[in-house]
Design a protein that fits this description.
heterodimer, A: Alpha-Beta Plaits, B: Rossmann fold, 2 domains, ten-stranded mixed β-sheet, two-stranded antiparallel sheet
């Protein structure tokens, strides 16, 4: 009877921990903004993933500072099993929520009919081999990178949008706005972003997240069971963990535990456990009417049984071959990246040759950018730069006295650089399009680009000259001093020409190696 | 019998009421027709008078300049809502002289509150990232310490304002809180600007404008003067403690910053700007918007006609 009381309580504690961790995770994302007081913490979750960290080290052939959290997670998994998936993972908790919502519509199939569990191991193999080839694939699918990206670039901006819409509506109502506006200004200070952030291609993120959650129609934790690469790695490690599920011999075969298990980890007799599948959510122990199920360290061997891992040679071959095939596919790069001129990387980025291998695509640099200027790249620069950060100056420029994006990168694809160094870091060069520029094309003064240029000696200068088509009129014509320009893009951002700006930042095609390290005069 | 209202008395009352009502509405309409200025009368003397405080302590200089004008009580009455509009456009530190000196703002805010203002609002539409700019300029912390309500620009609060005298622009979105304040105090800094030559008080109102502000550059002098006809400025406190002489309005190089040690206060926006041109070795007529504003009757450009009082702190 004692056990019967312990496990339901532990289960409740597990739920509280899950929700608490999800809140902490989201709190860190909200705090991923100026003034970045929690600088040491904001990249904690992407850093925690051993698959993310180690496969990135393999694909980039470069070290990552601070791999301790990832190692710690592996060690703890070795001791305790796959508790991370059941207790801590923010994506797992999100899936638990959506699974609860979908429970009425779920058509759960018999375990034997649809056994895709092995798929995640082949997928991990695929990711490992592509990493060996130097292709960063883990960033797209690593759960901690994926969940960071989904919450930071999708859910948080959407929440902002809903909140702003609601408060703008209340703002119109006299009387009500006296109550709603103080609350709104409080939320704007502590929760909402200063203005509506949105990211290029955000419906794509929505599609990915919804695809993962919708699988709850087939089974609970479908992603965690069948695809999650981190789950696969932790499953492999947890095979030798010391904490084991134990079923006493008095079991009545009532199958209550079978129904309670989110992961389909319990064999049909209710006693076996598929190795590596249990995420220690304690549902089975909590639901057992006889309190026959328990979790114990070092149980006597005869008392527990685990089902073998049934991996096939065919599956391995498939994983390997598809990885070999994927490598050239993703490297197929129609604009030939070296010649793609709009690939403006954040300051502090490592050289482009290594950048796509190192960037884990978690989106933290984009979330922290105070101008909403950093966006996830699409296919513009080839498949392998998908979701890596690109500065879109027309949307948001790179603030001269800001190095926030260099402080949050979990894999050091953007190295931390001092503000002084950042102010000299060349990310591109501005060019004036005289066909669009107002003094050149419309015989009027403008000079906004020169006004806002933050370089202390101005990278944009001007000369006084006769207007082209208006006799007797003198105008100020701007021009760029290439050797002073750092490519921050504020000129492109503030250019008052409608539509495409008359001054555009590009990365020069004939840039010598190490262009980014060029110190302007 | 005596209490019975005859047709004649009734008509008399009706007629009298109609006349007095229309008279009242005529008077109030005249009152509001003066460019947005609710309490112009009794506040602005017809003689242009500016006070120049010189010294090394911007806070004390500002206080002295205000005292020279007769104290903040001349402008701010008990219960007033006051807007103090500094130049807080760029993410720069005070030493770079790209934004108004925070000590000048602190002094203005404090003296408003001492004069009995109900609330003092401080805001600016920044060019750089607003949160960073508010902090790095030192203005937001200083104003908050002095008791001001510092807020970020709320895009919903821009109101399209007709510009009757506008030559190129007939209307422009202007920040409601600036227009609706009882007292609007402009606290600019004197800086070099390539297109307008100088950024002074009348250019500082760019910070309460919405819309595509860059478009105004196409006829900047005319547009600034036109916009100034619809924005009430009850008092200008010019920060010329440090001025930016080159590479403005952003600056960044300390070599371009010149110590001039002055704070200039006055109610006549044109004469304060006109006086400030001298700090750069220019004449008031050199600055297009000052010239046009004078021609529009916004103030006095001829410094010989302005009573300039200098106090040393």
């Amino acid at each position: 009877m004692k056990l019967n009381n312990t496990y339901p309580v532990l289960r409740t504690i597990r739920r509280i921990v899950q929700i608490g961790v999800l809140f902490f995770f989201f709190f860190l994302l909200v705090k991923t903004a100026y003034p970045l007081q929690l600088k040491k913490w904001v990249d904690f979750f992407p850093r925690l993933s051993p698959t993310g960290v180690f496969l990135t080290i393999i694909s980039s052939r470069m070290a990552i500072s601070g791999i301790l959290p990832a190692i710690l997670l592996l060690v703890l998994t070795l001791l305790l099993g796959r508790f991370f998936c059941g207790w801590l993972c923010p994506l797992g908790t999100t899936i638990d929520f959506s699974d609860t919502l979908l429970r009425k519509n779920r058509r759960e199939r018999k375990e034997s009919q649809l056994n895709l569990r092995a798929l995640k191991y082949y997928f991990l193999l695929f990711l490992f081999i592509t990493a060996l080839f130097g292709l960063q694939t883990i960033g797209w699918v690593d759960p901690l990178s994926l969940v960071t990206r989904s919450y930071a670039l999708l859910i948080y901006p959407y929440l902002n949008f809903l909140g702003a819409g609601l408060f703008n509506l209340l703002y119109q109502v006299p009387g009500v706005n006296a109550l709603s506006e103080p609350l709104y200004s409080f939320l704007k200070t502590y929760f909402f972003t200063p203005f509506q952030y949105l990211y290029q291609g955000h419906p794509f993120f929505l599609l990915v997240l919804v695809s993962i959650l919708i699988m709850g129609l087939f089974s609970r934790r479908w992603w965690c069971r069948n695809l999650c690469p981190l789950g696969a790695l932790l499953a492999l490690v947890s095979r030798c963990s010391f904490l084991k599920r134990l079923v006493k011999s008095e079991c009545l075969d009532c199958d209550a535990c079978l129904k309670a298990c989110k992961m389909g980890a319990i064999g049909e007799d209710g006693k076996k456990v598929w190795r590596g599948e249990c995420i220690e959510c304690l549902n089975c122990a909590g639901q057992c009417p006889q309190a026959e199920v328990s979790f114990q360290f070092f149980p006597p061997k005869r008392n527990y049984r685990s089902a073998p891992l049934d991996l096939s040679r065919r599956g391995f071959l498939l994983g390997t071959l598809s990885a070999v095939a994927a490598f050239p596919l993703f490297s197929l790069n129609y604009p030939r990246r070296k010649k793609y001129p709009y690939l403006v990387r954040p300051p502090g980025s490592i050289p482009e040759e290594n950048f796509t291998g190192k960037c884990i695509r978690c989106g933290l640099c984009m979330a922290v950018c105070p101008t909403n200027g950093l966006h996830p790249g699409l296919w513009q620069a080839g498949g392998d730069s998908l979701w890596t950060p690109i500065l879109v100056s027309r949307v948001g420029y790179c603030e001269y006295s800001c190095n926030l994006c260099t402080q949050v990168c979990p894999t050091d694809a953007i190295r931390e650089i001092s503000l002084e160094r950042k102010k000299k870091w060349v990310i591109g060069t501005a060019y004036i399009d005289e066909n669009r520029c107002i003094p050149y094309s419309r015989d009027k003064n403008c000079l906004v680009c020169e006004e806002v240029c933050p370089i202390p000696t101005k990278a944009i200068k001007f000369r006084k000259d006769k207007a082209k088509n208006t006799p007797g009129k003198k105008l100020l014509y701007p021009y760029v001093l290439e050797e002073r320009c750092i490519g921050c893009g504020i000129c492109e951002n503030k250019c008052p020409v409608e539509g495409k700006a008359a001054i555009i930042v590009t990365v020069p095609q004939l840039s010598p190696p190490g262009y980014a390290d060029r110190i302007p005069v | 019998m005596e209490n019975k209202i005859t047709r004649r008395t009734f008509l008399k009352i009706l007629g009298g009421g109609a006349v007095s009502l229309s008279g009242l509405s005529f008077l109030t309409s005249r009152g509001s027709a003066a460019p947005g200025n609710k309490r112009e009368e009794g506040r602005v003397s017809h003689e242009s008078h500016i006070v120049v405080a010189e010294g090394r302590d911007p806070y004390a200089m500002t206080m002295a300049a205000l005292a020279g004008l007769g104290g903040m009580g001349q402008f701010v009455r008990r219960g007033d809502i006051v807007v103090v509009k500094p130049n807080m456009a760029f993410n720069r530190v005070p030493e770079q002289a790209a934004n108004t000196n925070p000590e000048v703002v602190r002094a203005v805010v404090r003296s408003c509150l001492e004069a009995g203002a109900k609330v003092v609002k401080v805001f600016d539409k920044t060019v750089n990232v607003s949160r960073m700019t508010y902090d790095r300029s030192g203005i937001a912390p200083a104003a908050r310490e002095a008791g001001a309500r510092v807020s970020f620009i709320d895009e919903r609060k821009f109101k399209e304002k007709q510009i009757a005298q506008g030559k190129f622009i007939k209307s422009w979105p202007i920040y409601k809180e600036a227009l609706e304040a009882d007292v609007f105090i402009n606290v600019p800094i004197a800086k070099q600007h390539s297109l307008a030559r100088l950024t002074l008080g009348m250019k500082n109102i760019m910070g309460v404008l919405g819309g595509n502000r860059g478009r105004l550059h196409q006829n900047i002098d005319q547009n600034l003067a036109d916009l100034n006809t619809v924005i009430p400025i009850h008092l200008t406190v010019m920060d010329a403690y440090r001025i930016l002489t080159a590479n403005g309005p952003t600056g960044g190089r300390l070599e371009d910053v010149k110590f001039t040690g002055q704070v200039i206060a006055g109610t006549d926006r044109v004469s304060v700007d006109a006086y400030s041109t001298g700090l750069f070795g220019l004449k008031p007529e050199d600055i297009g918007y000052i010239r046009i504003a004078y021609e529009k009757g916004l103030g006095e450009i001829d410094l010989a006609k302005v009573r300039v009082e200098t106090v040393r702190v």
